[in-house]
Specification:
Strand content: 5-15%
Radius of gyration: 23 Å
Bound molecules: s-citryldethia Coenzyme A
Order of helices and strands: EEEHEEEHHHHHHHHHHHHHHHHH
Mean pLDDT: 95
Strand order of the largest sheet: 1-2-3
Largest sheet: 3 strands, antiparallel
Amino acid sequence: MAEEKQTATLIFGNKKLEFPMYSPTAGPDVIDIRKLYAEGDVFTYDPSYTSTASCESTITFIDGDKGELLYRGYPIEELAEKSHFLEVCYLLLYGDLPTAAQLEDFEDRVTRHTMLHEQMQYFFRGFRRDAHPMATMVGVVGAMSAFYHDSTDIGDPWQREVAAIRMIAKMPTIAAWAYKYSLGQPFVYPRNDLDYASNFLRMCFAVPCEEYEVNPILSRAMDRIFTLHADHEQNASTSTVRLAGSSGANPFACIAAGIACLWGPAHGGANQACLEMLREIGTVDRIPEFIKRAKDKDDPFRLMGFGHRVYKNFDPRAQVMKESADEVLSLMGIENNETLQVAKELERIALEDEYFIDKKLYPNVDFYSGIILDAMGFPTSMFTPIFAVSRTVGWISQWKEMIVDPSQRIGRPRQLYVGAARRGYVEVENR
Ligand code: SDX
């Protein structure tokens, strides 16, 4: 537990209550209000948890004012430049960067779990071909407990470890097969001689009729996208995984719940919505029309890929993604990509507009990622599944942390009830 530094006093009615305060490694101090209801007979009210810490964690830290993101203390910019996704997975899961031997063992364990139980193919075939891949992923991942029952006992540390490795290893296969199924193409099996990102690209784009050569520029960009999306404190989908896990649900069911939450356009679905918005804008001269709509209170339109609950300065992931978009598109000879030009001009105009400045709205991780994924050949429907492949390591790391946290019990928020007071039943003839 963080160190208790001082106490907070709450005075209301005839009550004066003292609460311990803790100072974290970084970020705001917290007030421990666990005894508030028992001693004060009142609840706090924080409907979207803007001021509420739901847990103690050692995994990821965000400083929204500084635009800082740390995975186990390491800045995301350094990891994106110097590390690679499976090393980042090890860091998030176990807390430290691995030695060469530890990394080799970890990569080998993940590689040997990339295949899916052959019978799971029937799940894919039960969906319509035009099903959104996220629908397929929710269904297939939720069904994994039926096939990997030997890693569902959350009380067994070894089974938790196996479930974590299986989830990280199998998500690329599930996402790639959801994509192949939507195309009506045969499933491509993982290869043990390819790295994680290259394996994913090959499973998505190879066909049995010819050899597929992985483009090293694209596999490096894919690996970097995985690193940038891996974890992000207690975001909506991670909080969903933790809440599902607090009931004792098996890890596969918890990850399926996280995938479902990530799908929303306010969260992981924003990358798909953002590219579709950029395409709808189409050309730079139409940007003012959309900026106007984004500022119009009566128009539900929002600038997708902009804004964030925590970042009130730039999102460091967006910065890395923007550099990567420039690099990938120019190496692919499509630097004059119209969508990229629209994105850059939209960012420039928005960041000079007082509405966005006042509300501290900056591009987030979803603003540029879609441009790279589109250039790689992915349809927009595959953008959020790719986010889910990456975030699985964050979800499972946070889930593991929650399971062994002695302060964690089943999550059960209270409410501010403003419904009808008690009343008697009225027969239908008297209504
Ligand atoms: C992710 O939490 C995480 O860490 C998430 C994530 C992760 O890695 O897990 O970072 C991934 O989900 C990134 C966010 C992707 N979503 C989008 O890009 C969708 C567009 N953005 C918005 O919907 C919004 O900014 C949110 C959902 C991201 C944040 O919403 P908040 O914190 O609830 O902020 P808000 O909706 O209260 O907005 C504050 C004000 C509002 O105006 P007022 O009511 O104060 O007048 O800013 C306005 C909003 O109308 N606003 C926008 C806007 N985002 C907020 N106006 C125009 N365009 C936008 N994009």
